[in-house]
């Protein structure tokens, strides 16, 4: 079972959009997928129009069995554990718990019936994000096309390096650094991609060309639809399809990603 966390300390870089489309994309290809929202903003539930009474906060406090928080088939093959602002209080509530960084991993131990778990996280390196990272074995790092997003990505990678030092026995790979809001005609995008190319760790994991800026993603969210449901011919649908191809088969797609990068796309 693959376990993928979508993280970046910087807000508004496309984490939730990416988590939803990776999860729904894999499910659309026949995988059984569990999407978990670890962000108290609860944006995944809003985006998919799912508002269950039992959420991740109840799972982490042990108030319910994990199975009872899973909303089945929010899309074909896609199940969800949603979040709400109730999770804001968890940080304080769990601060005294033993092994508090691995509560999510332990609560999910009996959940084995999926091909993949995808976790969305909040724009912070807090206890909930650590829990997401200590469940996951793979990380997707969406990065918007501005300096602050790149700084956020670097800080996030530093945080992941610290986790690796604290839990050296755990494997946690950077599956992709994913450029988002890409607009190749702007100086901001070119400068951002250049800055990412200068960071050795980011460069080695950069998925080019990434996800182009596309207003249809906003409209899709407003309609509570995925981009493939709302605008299957849009740029964002094309780009997320290409990215899910890569996530499904990282070894195969990295080759062509390199080719595009070399071609200067
Ligand atoms: N490639 C894109 N082009 C245009 N708009 C986008 C793109 N990706 C995401 N958006 C929009 O930008 C907004 C922020 O995206 P999203 O919620 O995915 O970011 P986030 O990183 O999860 O934010 P937060 O840090 O607050 O959780 C949303 O309205 C989303 O629809
Ligand atoms: Mg989000």
This entry's quaternary arrangement is single chain
Class derived from helix and strand content: alpha/beta
Q: Tally the beta strands.
A: 7
Architecture per CATH nomenclature, i.e. the level-2 architecture: 3-Layer(aba) Sandwich
Q: How many strands, which pairing sense, and closed or not: the largest β-sheet? A: 7 strands, mixed
What is the CATH homologous superfamily assignment?
Answer: P-loop containing nucleotide triphosphate hydrolases
Order of helices and strands: EHEHHHEEHHEHEHEHHHHHH
Strand percentage: 5-15%
Distinct small molecules: adenosine-5'-triphosphate, magnesium ion
- What is the approximate shape? globular
How would you write the strand order of the largest sheet? 3-4-2-5-1-6-7
Q: Would you give an account of this structure?
A:
The protein has 265 residues and is of the alpha/beta class. It has a single domain, classed as Rossmann fold (3-Layer(aba) Sandwich). The chain is built from 14 helices and 7 strands. The protein has helices at 15-28, 43-48, 56-61, 66-69, 90-93, 103-107, 127-135, 147-166, 187-198, 200-205, 216-222, 227-230, 235-248, 250-262, and strands at 2-6, 33-37, 71-75, 78-81, 116-120, 138-143, 173-179. It has a 7-stranded mixed β-sheet, sandwiched between helices. α1 packs across α13 (235-248) and α13 crosses α14. The longest helix has 20 residues, at 147-166. The radius of gyration is 17 Å and the shape is globular. Residues 255-265 have low confidence and may be disordered. Residues 11-17, 39, 41, 43, 123, 180-181, 211, 213-214, 217-218, 221, 236 line the site of adenosine-5'-triphosphate.
């Amino acid at each position: 079972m693959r376990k993928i966390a979508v993280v970046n300390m910087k807000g508004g870089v496309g984490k939730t959009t990416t988590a939803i489309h990776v999860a729904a994309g894999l499910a659309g290809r026949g995988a059984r997928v569990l999407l978990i929202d670890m962000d108290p903003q609860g944006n995944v539930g809003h985006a998919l129009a799912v508002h269950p009474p039992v959420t991740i906060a109840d799972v982490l406090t042990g108030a319910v069995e994990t199975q009872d928080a899973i909303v089945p088939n929010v899309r074909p093959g896609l199940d969800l554990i949603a979040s709400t602002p109730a999770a804001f209080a968890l940080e304080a509530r769990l601060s005294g718990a033993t092994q508090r960084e691995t509560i999510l991993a332990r609560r999910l131990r009996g959940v084995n019936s999926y091909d993949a778990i995808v976790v969305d996280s909040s724009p912070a390196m807090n206890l909930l994000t650590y829990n997401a990272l200590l469940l996951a074995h793979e990380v997707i790092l969406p990065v918007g096309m501005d300096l602050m997003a790149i700084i956020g990505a670097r800080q996030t990678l530093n945080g992941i390096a610290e986790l690796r030092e604290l839990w050296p026995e755990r494997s946690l790979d950077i599956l992709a650094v994913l450029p988002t809001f890409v607009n190749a005609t702007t100086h901001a995008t070119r400068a951002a991609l250049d800055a990412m190319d200068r960071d050795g760790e980011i460069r080695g994991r950069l998925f080019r060309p990434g996800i182009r800026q596309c207003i249809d993603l906003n409209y899709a969210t407003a309609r509570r639809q995925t981009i493939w449901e709302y605008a299957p011919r849009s740029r964002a649908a094309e780009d997320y399809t290409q990215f899910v191809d890569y996530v499904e088969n990282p070894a195969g797609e990295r080759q062509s990603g390199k080719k595009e990068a070399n071609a200067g796309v």
